[in-house]
Specification:
Blueprint: E1 20-21, E2 34-38, E3 45-53, E4 56-63, E5 69-75, E6 82-88, E7 93-95, E8 98-106, E9 111-115, E10 125-128, E11 135-137, E12 140-144, E13 150-157, E14 170-177, E15 194-197, E16 200-204, E17 210-214, E18 220-224, E19 227-232, E20 240-245, E21 250-255, E22 258-269, E23 275-281, E24 298-302, E25 312-316, E26 322-324, E27 331-335, E28 340-344, E29 352-356, E30 362-366, E31 372-375, E32 379-383, E33 388-394, E34 399-406, E35 411-412, E36 418-422, E37 429-435, E38 442-450, E39 455-459, E40 462-469, E41 478-482
Parallel strand pairs: 1-38
Antiparallel strand pairs: 2-41, 3-4, 4-5, 5-6, 7-8, 8-9, 9-10, 11-12, 12-13, 13-14, 15-16, 16-17, 17-18, 19-20, 20-22, 21-22, 22-23, 24-25, 25-26, 27-28, 28-29, 29-30, 31-32, 32-33, 33-34, 35-36, 36-37, 37-38, 39-40, 40-41
């Protein structure tokens, strides 16, 4: 390991020279960082992202000379490195039946293929999708096949062995809508006309009927007629359902080349069977789900474009009482508890305001500029400016400093240890420090670190940090794993 650097860090909010050297707990039989993976010295690394998968670590490497990324799988001490794929554009995912098998979608054929992190099994196609979109159910994946405006609604049950078997296809409905036309407003389009809640599937038929099927009996039930698109709550077993009628009552506002049609929007309480008309509007105006505050007993939607001062609407689900939003830009960010909501601007930016639904009381807890936001169950973690303070603001408005000089590419653990690059040059390379949550003491981990590479792992055995070192020294050049001591 290199000696600690003594750097002047006034530009990053520091008044003293660099932090003291960190001590390291034992990791893989040594009290210093462990090299996980060698890097190609002839390629310029742009970024690294990483994840845990069982007993292995996954490392996604992006290079400046390629649009696609490499995915590597290594053991916890860097043993048995496997190049899983060299042509990915995003992270693959896992499904509950096989938590340690990866699946990625090839946009050339819209097939979901397996990836084996151990390198034993070759990639194998398992599921068909529409534009790589499918909904997950306990019984398998549901999607709309084909590439036209309509297509068959298909369930693909989980196969016993995805490395050797393709999923079977069970046609639930012969023809359903594949998009809300004209001018769908999400990507992929089928988001607006296909959804699942638990063991139920919701879709819109080619005859504009909104139907639900229980995957236990596969019998469709018609919930509404003349449906353009819909939104269903994920809580209470999909109790609340909103849809827009195909009737066009007004030519809507423009968004780019789209001119969203307005029409009657209805609310169904599936528990009581009661149907109520909410408004004449375009569901496209509501950038987030109508159901973002349903756990607090509220619906939120918009009746006009973002610059329309009277656009926001709230509906109390117990009384169906409607009232205007308290702010022209306020929308639900998260539900704090059954009586409190956190509101943000339409684009999830400040101001952040806590609203007590039972009393109507409002408390704005943050309204300044910021460069990065993280939300937890009890607070917001906000970096006002790169190189500035990282603060934690609880929902009563109390503020506490977590670190004094933080780069915008910081990482934070559940116990609030902060890992941050500092003294980062124009090439994106600098040093890496860890900040203690109680004392705010900073300890130096390493230098020559690519700022877009650090990651925290919280294990039963302690806190681990991975990062990429960019160096002309081949022994240093690579991805490392460290275990900072207490």
């Amino acid at each position: 390991m290199p000696l600690v650097l003594l750097l002047g860090l006034g530009g990053c909010g520091y008044d003293v020279t660099g932090p003291a050297a960190a001590e390291f707990d034992e990791l893989c039989g040594q009290n210093e960082p462990v090299k996980l993976l060698n890097l190609d010295p002839d390629r310029t690394l742009d970024h690294v992202t990483s994840r845990e998968l069982g007993e292995r670590l996954l490392l996604m490497l992006g290079y400046e000379d390629a649009e696609s990324r490499e995915l590597w799988s290594v053991g916890r001490c860097g043993e048995d490195p496997v190049l899983v794929s060299d042509s990915l554009h995003g992270w693959p995912r896992s499904y509950e039946p096989w938590p340690e098998i990866l699946f990625y979608c090839d946009e050339a054929d819209d097939l979901l293929w397996t990836l084996d992190p151990t390198g034993v099994h070759p990639p194998s196609p398992v599921f068909e999708t529409r534009a790589c979109f499918a909904k997950v159910t306990p019984a398998g994946l549901v999607t709309i096949l084909g590439d036209g405006d309509t297509g068959p609604l298909v369930l693909q049950p989980w196969p016993e062995d995805p490395f050797t078997q393709a999923a079977e296809q069970v046609v639930l409905l012969d023809e359903v809508k594949a998009a809300a036309l004209p001018f769908p407003h999400t990507q992929p389009d089928a988001h607006e006309v296909l959804d699942t809640v638990d063991n139920e599937v919701f879709a819109v038929t080619a005859a504009d009927e909104l139907v639900v099927l229980n995957l236990d009996d596969l019998v469709p039930t018609v919930l509404a007629q003349d449906v353009r698109e819909f939104d269903v709550s994920q809580s209470e077993g999909g109790r609340w359902l909103v849809w827009q009628d195909i009737e066009v009552t007004k030519v809507g506002m423009y968004s780019g080349d789209s001119q969203w049609p307005e029409g009657p929007v209805y609310l169904l309480d599936r528990m009581s069977g009661e149907i109520s008309q909410l408004d004449d509007t375009a569901m496209a105006y509501t950038l987030t789900s109508y159901m973002g505050a349903v756990e607090a007993g509220l619906l939120y939607y918009r009746v006009g474009a973002i610059n329309d001062e009277s656009a926001g609407r709230w509906v109390r689900l117990d009384t169906l009482e409607q009232y205007a939003s308290p702010s022209t830009t306020a929308s639900p960010y998260l539900v704090i508890d059954e009586s409190r909501l956190l509101l943000s601007s339409v684009f999830f930016r400040p101001p952040f305001t806590v609203v007590d639904v039972s009393t109507g009381e409002h408390n704005t807890i943050f309204s300044d500029q910021m460069v990065r936001l993280r939300a937890t169950t009890d607070s917001l973690i906000i970096l006002r400016e790169s190189g500035g303070e990282l603060v934690k603001i609880d929902f009563e408005g109390n503020t506490r400093t977590l670190a004094k000089g933080v780069h915008e590419l910081y990482q934070i653990s559940e116990d609030e240890h902060v890992i941050t690059p500092f003294a980062v040059g124009a090439d994106g390379i600098g040093s890496l420090v860890i900040v203690e949550p109680e004392t705010l003491d900073e300890r130096y981990i390493d230098d020559d670190v690519l700022s877009k590479s650090s990651m925290i792992y919280e294990t039963d055995d302690g806190l681990l940090v991975s990062y990429a070192v960019i160096s002309s020294d081949p022994e240093r050049h690579g991805i490392w794993l460290a275990k900072p001591g207490d």
